[in-house]
Amino acid sequence: MRALILEAIGEPLRARELPLPEPGPGQVRIAVRACGVCRTDLHVRDGDLPDPALPLVLGHQIVGEVDALGPGVEGLAVGDRVGVPWLGRACGRCRACLRGRENLCPDARFTGYQLPGGYAEATVADAAACLPLPEGDPIELAPLLCAGVIGWRALTLAGESERLGIYGFGQAAHLLTQVARWQGREVFAFTRPADRRTQAFARELGCAWVGGSDERPPVELDAAILFAPAGELVPRALAAVAPGGTVVCAEIHMSDIPSFPYELLWQERVLRSVANLTWADAQAFLALAPRVPVRARVRAVPLEHAEEALRELAAGSVEGALVLQVG
Length: 327
Ligand SMILES: [Zn+2]
Ligand SMILES: [Zn+2]
Fold this sequence. Notes:
Distance between the termini: 11 Å
Largest sheet: 7 strands, mixed
Radius of gyration: 19 Å
Number of helices: 9
Bound molecules: zinc ion
């Protein structure tokens, strides 16, 4: 099978011909149809996340069909269409797992980082990590598996909010805005200053206000979600939310947060992060998405062009989501 391999941190991906992987106990092999390209893939490639399982196939928004079952797999059959997200394995026995917070399992393993990913014609995944998918084009479904699901978790952790701020208007934001608007919330979008193209995109999706991340919104917000990996936005977001409001940091990696006066946190403002996803988040969001309906703005890129897609994402010039088309 063809696969794009990360052989060493910081290096470009290389196209390789590999033997078809065999599913182990409790695993399935998946013929990949599409795999989303995520900012986290860049963080893995650049060494921002420790100890990736090199040589590695990146990619954790996998849509495909089960084409072989390992020993002991129940509930899945050859031909089933499944999605595999970032959370690829959790122990199922620790305190976090037993409370339904497998996103915090200390033994959790992640797809396209510690487990093989989807920048390939086939991959293997634990049957437990294979999610049922709604109908639709694999290219359009792929971004729902990370940007969508983690955005959904961030939204649920932001609490009740009529006025929701979103800092960083990329993949997750464009999906989440559709959900938030459908729920009747007003969305305030913050982009890079003077990024007119992204601002026009946010307006098109029905945001009530659009501005630069250096601007103050016209009204106090009830909550804000940060999808931008920039720590200096945290005090700005705290300053933009009303007393009792929540600021959720949704990025897996963020630059240092500068010190800020206690006054910004005072009055019961809450600052929190969101880590990964739970199986329940994924199931809830994938069931909700067709009802909204959430439509991912996507551009399909051939698997062989994964390296160019990563570079484009790093340059910040992508509107919506890039998805690798396989086969
Ligand atoms: Zn991701
Ligand atoms: Zn666990």
